[in-house]
## 1
Amino acid sequence: MTEQTKPRRPRLDLQVLGPIIALAVLIVIGALMNENFLGYGNITNVLSRSAFIGIIAVGMTFVITAGGLDLSVGSMAAFIAGCMILAMNALVPMMGTGWSTIFAGMAIALALGLVAGLANGLLITRARIEAFIVTLGTMGIFRSLVTWLADGGTISLDFTLRGVYRPMYYGGILGVSWPIIVFAVVAIAGEIAMRHTSFGRHCAAIGSNEQVARYSAIPVDRVRAWTYVLLGILVGIATIMYVPRLGSASSSTGVLWELEAIAAVIIGGTMLKGGFGRVWGTVVGVLILGLIDNLLNLTDLVSPYLNGAIQGVIIILAVVLQRQKKAER
Amino acid sequence: MGLDVSGDPVLSLNGVCRDFGQVRVLHSVDFALHAGAVHALIGENGAGKSTCMKILGGYLSASDGAVRHNGQDTVFASAQQAESDGVVMIHQEFNLAEQLSVEQNIFLGRELRKGVFLDHAQMRKQTQDLLDRLETRVDPAARVEDISVSDKQMVEIAKALSRNARVLIMDEPTAVLTNREAAVLFRQIERLRADGVAILYTSHKLDEIARLADMITVLRDGRVVAHGAGAEFDEDRMARDMVGRDLTNLYPDHDGPVGQEPVLEVENLTVPGLVEGLSFNLAPGEVLGFAGLVGSGRTEAMEGLMGLRAATGTIRRNGQPVTIRRMSDATQVGLGYLTEDRKGRGLILSQGMRPNLTLLALRKFVRRLIDRRAEEAALDTAITEFDIRAPHRDVAVGNLSGGNQQKLLLAKTMLNAPEIVIIDEPTRGIDIGTKQQIYAFIRTLAEQGRAVIVISSEMAEVIGLADRVVVMRQGRKAGELTRAEISEDSIVRLAMGLDGKDYAA
Ligand SMILES: Nc1ncnc2c1ncn2[C@@H]1O[C@H](COP(=O)(O)OP(=O)(O)OP(=O)(O)O)[C@@H](O)[C@H]1O
Ligand SMILES: [Mg+2]
């Protein structure tokens, strides 16, 4: 796998084009099958729903590029959502049902994301436990904590607050909803960080060969821990956008988000074993997954229950394409 | 020598060309291997030796021309097929499964069976026999990951021997071996030659070629430039044919002034279990050699000094005590370290030259974001200054020849402008022309008033380069030799512990 930036040489590379072509094909198919597909309402709907996974997947791109993995993000989102709602409900008597309570809830969500990410990061780098094991563990922990907090049921946001908070998901500026705006900002910032900052360069170096990174005076553990912290904060942000949608959290919140986020990253061309990451690819991956889901719901060609199967095929195809680049003989 | 090589060749390249993308790296190469003869293929880094060997061994295909096996045009569809036709190759890079045991590696892909079950006893016995033949004391059950680099090479050789090859292709097998291990290998080669095996051999150590080769083919820039019986070549002619010019004065003169005040003082450096109480000084303008047997703790000491290993001791920089806990502390006080393991620790093989070059000194290229233009400019400078020859600018570093990787690694280390440069095995696997360039470069560093430490297992290199030599033995300093005292004999005596004196603090 050669380097990502070629000063010249407009070589048509299947790895670069693959996800884009897949996305284009999906859009064409969608437009042909349903005239509402490209309508404003539907596009906004797809993008807003994809935004949560998208924001998380951008963070996941850095974790995977640095050779790690985080399975805990879905449960973490549920846990943060639960805590955030409980905290805001508790603050209502003191701070009222205005934006100040909501801002306090947001701060709590961000702080929790940071702490949760830091916990993952430190367990992986300091205690030297495999990322897979650590995050499998924290996944179980967060999931069971939120179930316990909800006492097996649902944690609901104060009714008045819900009304105040709702525009955070449904509103926007110039017809673009807030989740889409936040996703776009996160994606652009992520793309810049990956390609044009030392942090991105260091992530790729660590994921390619940790020893080389160490011998190049890169603080390997610190960078690696930062990728998990960053992801945790992004999970916090995603949760902030998610809570106003339903106004509640339960043990089934965020189930399988981790797999969707990882799938989006891989479909986008980031290497699962690390060393090379592409944030824009992840965005394309998120859109592909979102569109498939949407298409199945809009058309009755294939049952929406087969969504998972189709996603699975696409993930496997994406990895096969990645491997096509085996050296010529 | 004086063997009959007039008979029919066993395996030959006939007008073979090879392209990688747009770049042609072999231009109509011809040579032939004969039963019972050692054929040496020599040439500069990047001349195309490994490429020729991989084509013969079925790992690569020829873009044009033919491979002839026992007189017939052959296309080996794969290395497995070549192997089943008796053509076996030992690669320049290790091809071992790190997680498997020595024994499992040797029988990988052709495990012995008794019925449906593996015949462990038989495999164990055969492995032990092979290792005994190679005088290697490595446990057949040891995981490859845990054994030393030279043992890995011996396992590679054992694996090749176990295949009962009729043609054996060896790509720089001695680059990582000690002299003693190399001598064992040579005896095996002579035995195989007597058994009528055709052998293709390459090495940058020309004395080995002079000793082993019945036939020699010299490659330069992918073309055969000289060809003849081994007896027709002495080392000077080999070097001349390889490089295309006369090579005089491999080692530069050293007459620059050496400063009085030390820039670095190391006292009682201890790396638990590996290095004990090492003390030494370093003056500006000086090249300090570190000699000793493989495993005497030289690399570990320097890694300890650089903060790459846990170590204790006192370090003073220009008289001021400094604390070095991690490598960034070391680079901060002007130390630079060039690792001996350029593929495993030095360079990211899957990336291009630009990100590799700037990885260590990346901070210098950040103006809010990474300034790619400045990086490209730095790469331009490095390519000219270090004479890096790459097929094209975006080549993955793993596809550069060994010598050019080394030059890139040197450029990477120097980009950080260290005042004290520690170079571990500067010329491992490097051709003689490039060696001369690297030696000259090291001397220039000293003349600019920097201080250089050179660790080398090649005696001639230490003697030719160093103003002063520290000899290590079993993790301790065995002694120190000044300019006038440096000789092969004095170094060996200290390295082997024949003097009885122990200078360790
Ligand atoms: N897969 C590849 N893609 C592109 N170029 C390659 C590839 N493999 C080798 N090359 C180029 O082909 C040339 C010959 O390489 P080769 O490895 O055969 O050299 P060599 O003579 O074995 O050198 P060394 O002594 O350093 O081992 C080099 O310029 C190298 O960069
Ligand atoms: Mg080679």
Note: Chain A touches chain B at residues 1-3, 5-7, 9, 192, 196-198, 201-202, 204-205, 208-209, 211-219, 275-276, 328-329 (CB under 8 Å).
## 2
Amino acid sequence: MEPRKLRVAVHKFASCDGCQLAFLNAGEALLALSERVDFVHFAELGPMDPEAEVDVAFIEGSVCTREEGDRLQRIRARSRFLISLGACATAGGLQALRNLADGEAWLNEIYPRREYLDALATATPLSEEVTVDLAIWGCPVNGEQVFQVIAELERGLTPRLPDDPLCLECKRRGAVCTLVTQGRPCLGPVTRGGCGALCPRFGRDCYGCFGPSEHPNTEALGRRFEGLGLIDAAIARRFLFINSAAPAFREAGLRWGGRPACP
Amino acid sequence: MGTYLGLLQRRHADTLIQRLRGAGYHVLGPVVQDGTIRYAPVDGFDRLPAGWVEQQAPGHYRLQKRDSPRCFSWTLGPQGLKPLTFAPEEPLWTVERRHGHGLEFHSHFPETKKQAVLGVRACDLAALALQDRHFLGGPHPDERYRRRREGLLLIAVHCHRAAPTCFCASTGDGPRAHHGFDLALSELDEGYLVEAGSEAGHALAAALPLIPPQPGQQARAEREIRHAGEAQERRLPGRDLMTALRARRDAAHWEEIGRRCLACGNCTSVCPTCFCHCHQERPHPTEDRSSHYRQWDSCFTSGHSYIHGIVIREDTALRYRQWLSHKLGEWHAQYGRSGCVGCGRCITWCPVGIDLTHETAALLAAPPDDSEACDA
Ligand code: SF4
Ligand code: SF4
Ligand code: SF4
Ligand code: SF4
């Protein structure tokens, strides 16, 4: 008997859709993959069955409405292995900046009729509401990591992604350090690898979109940024940019008096 | 002092690269790239960094252009020879499921490429000798390393200028290259004094338009090299620190370093003698095969001390202690010398500028532990 194919769902919450593109951008590889796994729900690809029982559920986006909170519970109940896909789902994403301000006041100021909106004052990472079996970090995620994870699950393995600091990847790729040669406030030493040191390879400092590494010494790095001439607010913004709901970055941002990136 | 075979005048310098190419070598030489100096393919001396020097300090590297014809007044870039012999990442094998016929394994080996590297420094040659010892010296030589290593032809340049981060004079590995090169050059404004260190080097020198050196040229070169050693600001407190470091396993200073260190692994990645690696399995997402990779690791990762469910070196102080006590201490037991050749790269490329010479001095300034740790 042919073994049963892995049943996979890809769900979307509050997000920009960029992480789901990791699947679509794979082109032919996605076609080959759909021979091996069943995408039972994946709106961007076509199949629609949001309530289906699945082996693996990928969820992109953070919880920003009551409806999303309820939907998350239903997905969790019907999925054997739940994966937070990308920065929003894993650590709030950009929209979680409102958690550091008065989100309710913002909603009242920005929208003429607050009562028409089912919007929460906060943006919450999935792991604060349900058990998440694996986090795939990044804004956006690295498509190779996503395929790696599916390949391992499909073979019955427990996927594990690296959480070593980006600097190691940066050096393996032969990129030249932006902090040492340009004095840029690179977050690589406290950010987990996985992106292939994308930014430093183009001469740009990492802004931490893959979230905190295994053992992040944000205090020492923040002090180094002070030495590079950054004012406190600029240091706070570095840490609070993409993954402000990740505890290590949040704490670091608050240590330097963090407020959201812009008023 | 070396035995100079003659002077290669600056206007004939390109013949060196031409002869190497003629002999089938890919020639790598120093070029200015991404704000630093790196080895890259070169087809003439006009690609080399004439007049360029670098400023190095803890956590700091900047290039500067001066008005000088010299192509080797810079000292070191971020990497020595290590990436050429010990690949940062490479597949070791692929296993494939043959339907109905079990599994099939294929090994991956690099081709031996004839590569000539121009501008290798004494410290990096000393580091290469250590890596040779590690990868090739035991009963199970590393075939991938061997193949890469075998194709190398090394053209050293003695250092006439040291960076403030250099301390090769204190480790005994520079600024003059003594062994491990095929050809060695001393650079003067007017050209290069040439020495040979191997048969291949002699053959190469014989094919160059060398002229007898002018009186005083050799003495000038020797003086500049000596000065590069004497001007070094940093040093280690001794050659063999194994006993001294073993006796300070519980020093409070490790914790103090642990608060500053990022555990980022830049020091081990740029260190030309560090050899730790880890393994990874990467199943192909859509085909029935999986590849096994090896990549550079570091004693600053959790995986490095992960054994059966626990990470032995949980905090950074312990990881830094592992790095320093292995490099400057236990290497003596393992390889008969220190693992540090004094290149100073770990100082420059540390994002927070931690300086192993200062940390070692601070550790040794503390009295030895009274525990019995010393005899372990
Ligand atoms: S550029 Fe950033 S990631 Fe790369 S080594 Fe420097 S600090 Fe680390
Ligand atoms: S270098 Fe940093 S900011 Fe850039 S893609 Fe990688 S993790 Fe994201
Ligand atoms: S320990 Fe530092 S100075 Fe010594 S060889 Fe390694 S990188 Fe160079
Ligand atoms: S000593 Fe410096 S380069 Fe090495 S791990 Fe610590 S912070 Fe990183």
Note: Residues 6-230 of chain B form one domain.
## 3
Amino acid sequence: MSLEMTMSQPQSRETRGFPDYELPRLVRLTDNLHGTAFFLMKLLPARHMLDRAAADGRLKPGGTICETTSGTFGLALAMLAAVRGYKLILVSDPAIDEHLHKRLLELGATLEIVEKPYEIGGFQTARLDRLRATLEVNPGSFCPSQYGNADNPRAYAEVAEQIAERLGHVDCLVGTVGSGGSMSGIARFLRHLNPDLHVIGVDTPNSVVFGQPDGKRLLRGLGNSLVPPNVDHRQFDEIHWVGAAEAFLATRRLHQHHALYQGGTSGAAYLVADWWARTHPDRKVVTLFPDEGHRYVASIYNDDWLAALPGWTGVLPEAPQLVAHPSDVRPSWSSYRWDRRTLDKVLAEGTSFARDLAEAA
Amino acid sequence: MPGDVISRFASVRLGTRGNQRKENGFGQVNGHHGEILQGVFPDDAGRLHRGLVTLPCNIVSSTAVFRPAPGNLVTVPDDKLKAAEAARLTLDSLGLHDQGGHLTVESTIPVGLGMGSSTADVVAAIRAVADAHGAALGADEVARLAVRAETASDSIMHGDLAVLFTQREGIVLEHLGPALPPLEVLSVNTAPGALVDTVKQPPADYDEWEVQAFRPLRGMLRRAIRTGDTALLGRVATASARISQRHLPKPAFEEINGIAASAGALGIQVAHSGTVVGLLFDPRNPATARHVAEAAARLDTIGLPPARHFRTDAVEVRHVA
Ligand SMILES: Cc1ncc(COP(=O)(O)O)c(C=O)c1O
């Protein structure tokens, strides 16, 4: 759509939504560490993607939205669909949280639960196939595709605006990476004002986003079994992989020490941001806390549940283990100098085994 | 119609103040040095507008004298067509459709560099006509007349006020503060001899990322003005200049930016519809005099000797050695 057309479109505040719920509250945690605590971060990209689609006709008034998600993006879509009068079909799997499931139904969403994983590709591929079929039987429906839709990262200009206005110059940005929208979006906007901004992405072991082999992951919301096009790898200076137990323990620390009741990805971001802020006391750090803790009462905020986790020690590491290549990442907190490279470039440097061979030769 | 509103306003004023027609009306306005920020910005309802924040340059100005007379409107020099149009619109808006007169416009603002020469002539003319008829037009009324006369206007009718101004509508989208924090500016004309017609240029066709990227620039600008932080102001100006570079590229942009960075400047700013680039320095920094001299010497070596050196809060001209 041309700029002139964009400018003549009515914008979001003329339609219903939750503008005061979209932006985070800023909390100063230490002298040089600032947290941005969201109610539900995904409201912002969901609203922006729907606005843009409504503006250029991809989404008609009263139309149907189809998406595959079992997390906070689905909740954000359901809230917006409820107040804007869209029909919403969400494709998910049996792992969906029971309370979230009820809440989505109450908001008027239709849930299609894929019962069986594929032998190759698991639930992810099975869900994508079901989504494709759902889109076919609902012609004219709109799929936001948060992993590839460029309106997802672009939505975060409003967070960058808030950070720039409230904090001014920032030296370091730390946040978790799932679709890549929030971190790639905010990093690129802030870097336009500060080319030296140090950007740290937080992933989890067994996520392929920054070059780990795919595997089972307990920590949800960050990491992925595929590499979303919305991850702009060249924005990242440093990558950290945080395991589930450490992330949950850090989530509790965030509550105990700073009275912020947030979800598990907030804990993962806090662990890394707090370490960087302590080791760089003269630099201003800002980090993202994407959702609140209420959905995790029975898990992260339940001591018995935590104690039963595999590998639970109840102790937080002081610092990450610096690794020479993503393939060297261990199950617990590791870090790597990404140096704003593409994923292909990093992977081309090969595994440590390949490097050892090369060195020996 | 905004014109009708103004004419109703003005006739009330003429009525209450009596017919204060003078022999000669006088109007003056200072020029500018391009913009700190220019792009598209949402209003409170989320609708996008083209807008800008001007960098004042009070060492250059336009002056107009208007002598009312019945009949034709004569303008000297006769190629100041937009000023003549603005004078006509002002007379009409005052309800003086049969009235004409003699308009003289003089300016020290160089033409075609993006320093507001056209808007300054227009604003000086509007003020002179209004003054001649005892009508005190507010800045918003002047802005609307100016936009009608020349399609797109700079915000110089607002003086040193820091405003986010919609150059094609003539309205203030946001009042940012009483003034920008003071800056010391080293001015370079990147294309001597090449005139840019600031009005004939098509408006920049920003892509969807750029449309969003103006938001954090606006956020940082608010803070820069509120806290008097010139370093932030330099960052905003440089970021806006970078976007402008995709739409109206300045020759030697990277070289100038490199010189600014290594000579201790806060950043650079550009005329988004012109040819001048300003290297921005902090007047409160004791090292600024040395930094400016160093930058000037290095600009000289790339064939772009700075043409001016001024402070945004002062009127005296300093000569670069
Ligand atoms: C709770 C939570 N945290 C973090 C993220 C990661 O954000 P992004 O998708 O912008 O990379 C998500 C994404 O779904 C999330 O649900």
Note: The radius of gyration of chain B is 20 Å.
## 4
Amino acid sequence: MNDGLSTIEQQITSDYKYGFTSDLEADQAPKGLNEDIIRFISGKKNEPEWMLEWRLKAYRHWLKMEVPEWANIKYPPVDFQDIIYYSAPKQTKKLNSLDEIDPELRRTFEKLGISLDEQKRLSGVAVDAVIDSVSVATTFREQLGELGIIFCSMSEAIQEHPELVKKYIGSVVPMTDNFYSALNSAVFTDGSFCYIPKGVRCPMELSTYFRINAQNTGQFERTLIVAEEGSYVSYLEGCTAPMRDENQLHAAVVELIAMDHAEIKYSTVQNWYPGDKEGKGGIYNFVTKRGICAGVHSKISWTQVETGSAVTWKYPSCILKGDHSVGEFYSVAVTNHHQQADTGTKMIHLGKNTRSRIVSKGISAGVSHNSYRGLVSVAKNATNARNFSQCDSLLLGDRCGAHTFPYIEVKNNTAQVEHEATTSKIGEDQIFYCNQRGIDTETAVALIVNGFAKEVMNQLPMEFAVEAQKLLAITLEGSVG
Amino acid sequence: MLQIKDLHAGIEGKEILKGINLTIRPGEVHAIMGPNGSGKSTLASVLAGRSDYEVTGGSVEFLGKDLLDLAPEARAGEGLFLAFQYPVEIPGLSTINFMKTAVNEVRKYRGQDALDAAEFLKLMKEKMSLVNIDKNLLTRSLNEGFSGGEKKRNEVFQMAMLEPKLAILDETDSGLDIDAIRIAAAGVNAIRSKENATLVITHYQRLLDYIVPDFVHVLYNGRIVKSGGKELALELEETGYSFLKNEMNIA
Ligand SMILES: Nc1ncnc2c1ncn2[C@@H]1O[C@H](COP(=O)(O)OP(=O)(O)OP(=O)(O)O)[C@@H](O)[C@H]1O
Ligand SMILES: [Mg+2]
């Protein structure tokens, strides 16, 4: 027994496979943050006056706020004056076709395994690629345009659909919501915008790949998805960041709005650089994601596979305002080495007969810490609200930690809220059983972990499920001996 | 093919196997019987390479290689299979996926190409009918919620899939109904050949009616104290193990 269990903690040798930087000439702002920087960003992007005012308002509010400290994570304080808030790969003319993309940039995408052309066309994925802060290419635009679907970068949306942006930006995550959402509102540089008109079922997965490239740049995307009455969209966000020594801050805001009978499925595969074995470097991922089921019978479903980042602080949430609306949260969070994750969801039941379902699978290895933090809140008028939560933790070794913080606030006595939690360890006998069938320990761990996470993985769009499975395996490489 | 010489092994400082000698040649079927706690499963585990057990002396040669020197997965690659007395559960992993990985890992070890989906399916269908196992069982999480008999049947299926050179069946018959025992035995007999060998651990002579052994050994207190032909099993069925105590006391 001893032999086996202690080796669980030994080999910890997984190398980050996406650690390269590309030599793109960057066009960037000086370090630091003040009103001039915000004017610089807004000016660079040719924004209308109202947008600049909105940013400045957020900035002034942010100045009065304090860094949140309630999460179960520890990291050195971030120096917000030591960050570059705008960095765009230099690109002189506007692109008319994919062929005109900077070859270096293309190679970056290729190394990431993102193909902007045929492959994705064949697999039916539209990609809006974001490198550092500016969206460089959007495929499938025309095809989607015929259906009236708008899928573009946030910067373009501000130029071309200002009325929609103005109406919805900050409507789900107010700029004052929290420290990082205020910061994001002040300095966001790009992100994706997606609008599905009434009755339209988006025929393909929409996908954005985010990537943090230049050194010392914070990444502050802003994503906004609006699904009009009776529409449907499935959206996938994937992320990678090259290897850096300094920790890089990432503070995104994602807002989803689902009208009557609309459905939004939002999936994330996050594998940002987690730092090295000693816990040096890595991304700080402080994200505010929230959706509102504004209409009756609407549905928002969050699925996330979180394998990267040094520190993750993230609670994709649903406000169930419309009667009969449904919120779902499916999460796999894997931490290894010194990674820390504090993630979960909030399900806010406001409407009648609203339902929510939470399935959280935490996997911890090394000396990492993995916390689930969830709130289920049922308002006074939300009769017949239903929630079911399942939080399972799987531990690899003896030095990691799994924590569960479920908060329940029920103000209506017709509510039914169920919470189940389990903690298990990968058993030595399970691994031996696999070994005896010819399967080495590394592969055995991947099989067991994927089995554990299956319920969540099944929620991912097909094209990405396989990729996500591989990511789980890569993250845990060498975590069991 | 298997040569065990004066094998000593134990756990947490406690010696369980106290000098095992056993030779198995290709084509032979050996049965090991013996009272509870005598060390039968320990022997099987040590041969399969379970790391909890510490080998303190002796040697084991398997097909010309030093078995004790190989990692458990390499032993499987070399053709050693253990049908577990207590098969473990792996939630969320179907037997099909598990076997797909196992078969291809073993093939990789042997320098063979991986089977593609169609080839794998064909192999699976063939073995499923051989051991008469239901497809539904194979799509469920591995052993999770399986009845005792279903688990054992699943072990026999896996054995058939992996086509081992030496199969060790650790009480595969306990928990099986009469029909299932027949089917399991048919599975074993189907892969029985001049090149392969089987080591059957059992408490019941009944199984040996179907898998007829060439040799029967009695393991007692960490040693093989008696060996004989298949009639030894019948003898044990009638007299039980009480004779051992007397013999051992005399010895
Ligand atoms: N992990 C362990 N820790 C301590 N003792 C053990 C351990 N595993 C086995 N033993 C002991 O070793 C002895 C032999 O056990 P083993 O399982 O090999 O017996 P067996 O012959 O297979 O018995 P059965 O017929 O009941 O299956 C027993 O006394 C058992 O308690
Ligand atoms: Mg036993």
Note: The CA atoms of residues 94 and 140 of chain B lie 5 Å apart.
